[in-house]
Request: fold
Amino acid sequence: MTPRTPGHARWILPLLLTFFLLAGGAFRASLPFQIATWGAAALTAAGVVSVVKRTRLIARHRQELAAAEAARNEHAWRVAAQLRRDLPDRAPRNTVQV
Reply:
């Protein structure tokens, strides 16, 4: 089962908080509001980095799954081709002595 793509709540919510704080004039306000604004901006940046890393990991995992499936298909094709070559000769396959 392939992992789901990452959600964007990690960076959208802090980004919206930053916009609301800046629009409300928090940057010109007191020190606690400036700290809250910078904190929300830092959370936004951290969320973006997290989503990018997770997206890359998911892409790599999907490539590995596709490569494994291609290898299984190739093996099945080789087995089917060998069976096709053996059947016209009426060669017994996997006989069991009773």
User: Anything to note?
Assistant: The helical segments are 9-23, 31-86. Residues 9-89 form one domain.
